[in-house]
Amino acid sequence: MAGTTQSAVSPEIRAAVSARLDELFARSGAISFGITKPEFEGCLQAIAAKYLPSDTSRREAEEFVSTLRVEEIVLTRACVAGNERAWEQFMARFRELLYDSALGIAKEASQAKDLADSLYADLYGLNERDGTRVSKLASYMGRGSLEGWLRTVVAQEFVNRYRAKKRLVSLEEEEEEGSQYAAPDPNPAAPVDPRVNDAISDALATLDSESRTILSAYYLDGRKMAEIGRMLGFH
Q1: What sign does the CA torsion over 50, 53, 59, 64 have?
Q2: Alpha carbon distance 4, 211 (integer Å)
Q3: What is the pLDDT of residues 105-139, one digit of tens each?
């Protein structure tokens, strides 16, 4: 159950997690999956440190930690660790949800099944990176319901597939029409009003660096949402 270094966690967050630890650990059911209290504590500290600013008070940190859905955090982390009983529970609870969500988006049974099935390997963690299981479930942080998070994962995968297919179709159409050899447009688009650029710059300046990185990666680099999540370490 991945945590974070103690130096990366403020004393207020450590104190807040410690104050609620016994209560949250008992409620989480971590013992049933072989997750120890120190491992559980490290996970909560990592989540709180990720989302709370460095000057967060202990009271604010306690309020944040108390709202986390610890039962679902433990279930997902146990799945990530390869606990078969946790995976069986996960599938029993969410298999139908995944398919229904996929059907609601794809609108066609075979496509929905293919979409849902394609997620199982990513959620289970069949792939490895540097000898470590790679599972989408590691990105779940317990701030909202696991059900809602999974619906988002299904929708994101559908969008990624659509964008990839759209790029492929567009490229094939261009090749068939000879567009790759087309002459330069004699009437290029008019330049953007400088006031628009100024307004965009002002708006971007109000964002934190992480948000600017996400926007830049998506709109300028053309990265998929899943790639950005892996790059920045969250969903």
Answers
A1: negative
A2: 22
A3: 888 899 889 888 888 878 887 777 777 778 899 99
For residue 132, give the H/E element and its range: strand 132-133
CB 86 within 8 A of CB 75: yes
Query: Residues near 127 by Cβ (< 8 Å), separated by ≥ 6?
Result: 121, 133, 134
Whole-angstrom Cα distance, residue 107 to residue 199? Answer: 40
> What is the three-class DSSP state of 31?
helix
- The continuous run of DSSP H or E covering 129 comes out as strand 128-129
- CA gap 220, 88 in Å, rounded: 41
* pTM for this predicted structure: 0.68
DSSP H helical ranges for the chain:
11-28, 37-51, 58-67, 70-80, 84-106, 109-124, 146-177, 194-205, 209-215, 225-232
- The DSSP 8-state label assigned to residue 130 in this structure reads T
Spatial separation of the C-alpha atoms in residues 70 and 47, rounded to whole Å: 11
Amino acid at 87: W
| Two structure tokens written together for 127 | 């792939």
The string of pLDDT tens digits covering residues 30-44 is 999 999 999 999 999
Residue 45 neighbours by CB under 8 Å, 6+ apart: 3, 4, 9, 13, 14, 17
Q: Is 208 exposed, middle or buried (0-12, 13-18, 19+ CB in 10 A)?
A: exposed
Q: How many CB atoms lie within 10 A of CB 154?
A: 24
Q: How confident is the model at residue 181 (pLDDT cuts 50, 70, 90)?
A: very low
